[in-house]
Specification:
Structural class of chain A: mainly alpha
Helix content of chain A: over 70%
Largest interface: A-B, 27 and 30 residues
Largest sheet of chain A: none
Number of strands of chain A: 0
Shape of chain A: globular
Mean pLDDT of chain A: 87
Order of helices and strands of chain A: HHHHHHHH
Number of helices of chain A: 8
Oligomer: homotrimer
Low-confidence stretches of chain A: none
Number of domains of chain A: 1
Chain lengths: 207, 207, 207
Amino acid sequence: MSNNIFMLIDLLGTAAFAISGVFAAMEKKLDLFGVYVIAFITAIGGGTIRDVLIGDFPVAWMRTGYYPVTIFIGASVALFFHKLRNYQKVLLLFDSIGLGFFTVLGIRKGIALDFSMGLCIALGTITACFGGLIRDVLLNQIPQILHKEIYATACIAGGILFFTLQKISLPPVALDGICILAIVTVRLIAVKYNWSLPGIYPTNKKE
Amino acid sequence: MSNNIFMLIDLLGTAAFAISGVFAAMEKKLDLFGVYVIAFITAIGGGTIRDVLIGDFPVAWMRTGYYPVTIFIGASVALFFHKLRNYQKVLLLFDSIGLGFFTVLGIRKGIALDFSMGLCIALGTITACFGGLIRDVLLNQIPQILHKEIYATACIAGGILFFTLQKISLPPVALDGICILAIVTVRLIAVKYNWSLPGIYPTNKKE
Amino acid sequence: MSNNIFMLIDLLGTAAFAISGVFAAMEKKLDLFGVYVIAFITAIGGGTIRDVLIGDFPVAWMRTGYYPVTIFIGASVALFFHKLRNYQKVLLLFDSIGLGFFTVLGIRKGIALDFSMGLCIALGTITACFGGLIRDVLLNQIPQILHKEIYATACIAGGILFFTLQKISLPPVALDGICILAIVTVRLIAVKYNWSLPGIYPTNKKE
């Protein structure tokens, strides 16, 4: 059962990132194939880099047919609804959901490998953020994660929450659910209220 | 014998992509070393990503001295002829040839690993397209594969042809040859007649 | 003891590149988290790609807690001193020092794997240059290594010197020290006197 939930989390995160990839690609007016490629890479990029770093081959998306199918369906639905007026908000929503799911997934993978807490949180953050990072590199823009509001910071906060809550021995489903919710919430609130990290540049020098 | 042909295909594709890398790098006025680096990365990038994804180490170009030598000779010849009037056409030709060779190479590697048909075609497409994708990322432009005419689509079509023809048990050389030719032809015709995938944007909104 | 020196070289190079990453990221006005991420990726990027190519998992920075700590301290010191008037010069200095250390480190890793001289020098150059290359890709600019003065060329020259001196059986520490010094010196002199590789474009065509 635990395995099923693990997989469900993975597929939901995958679909969410595929959808976010479609919206980002369409902003750059890519062609149909390009949109699917970006959806695919956004969805599997983080997990692929995680698996490559820890040496788990072949990487996750090659091991089962679920990923391509999930991505294809998610991306196709997104393409169908692309005329939505405020797709910026939809992009944000799905990106945040993917962020939450993938952070927890990466942390669980690190725990399964007996990694230290710090490394587990790093793996979670990489799983969650590097798909979007590759997406932005391919779309020829500085990755959002590097200069936008609270983003990876939400993953790290969620990771610390995970290891804090773990001590009170919640059932895994509750633990995962709370952390995912916390990450999504932090991210959405950060965007809504325009939170950002403390500035490090003199304000008058900022262009 | 089959092994020799395998290697010949690999070296021809490698030289073709090295040459395409030189022309792309010279358009951006890179220095001599930069031109060779781009030639090298364009030539070995797709195969390297393929080997990393499936966990085949050390990656292909580190296993034999043939690659560096082939790339060096190919790139040097290209540098010598760079004053050709219409090098855009030469770039296209060699890029297409590389595309055909590497698609078949990737498919054959997938078959050797007992991968599913879909995964084999994905491996072929990655082998063929990701060298050019990394080349474009390094040259700070949105990868051609994502927004230009029929490109990866030609690889996928060639891959489907491969598995269709495989059923009538052609000799491997003929099978490989026909698919390579098909991919190169589709790609060249697509560029000549400006084929592209069906549009997904309202035409009046397109810049 | 040899192992200790090996590690010292590694940590000094890591700190130097982390510092160079901070200065590069601050030029692009990234936020606090982005600055640390770029510092981290600049510092571990080259070694990570090297380990992935040769199949050494988990990659170096995941095996010990020294790297994150070193990078954090190096980056924090750099952040503190970022108001230095001429940080361009500081960036150059630390980038050059990192270059020297990491080239020798990569060469020694290749030797430990019984690789050929050519491959060892390639590994050294990749270890030294690819952190900066990824840094530049993430900051959305054509990597310096591809179009700026003598850069990777200094690594290659240092690598050839290494294998030349190796024949006269110097003690390892002396051998490493001389090569590191040579690489740093060549790089600094190249920048000071604006050395570059022989031009390959007609000068009147150059923008």
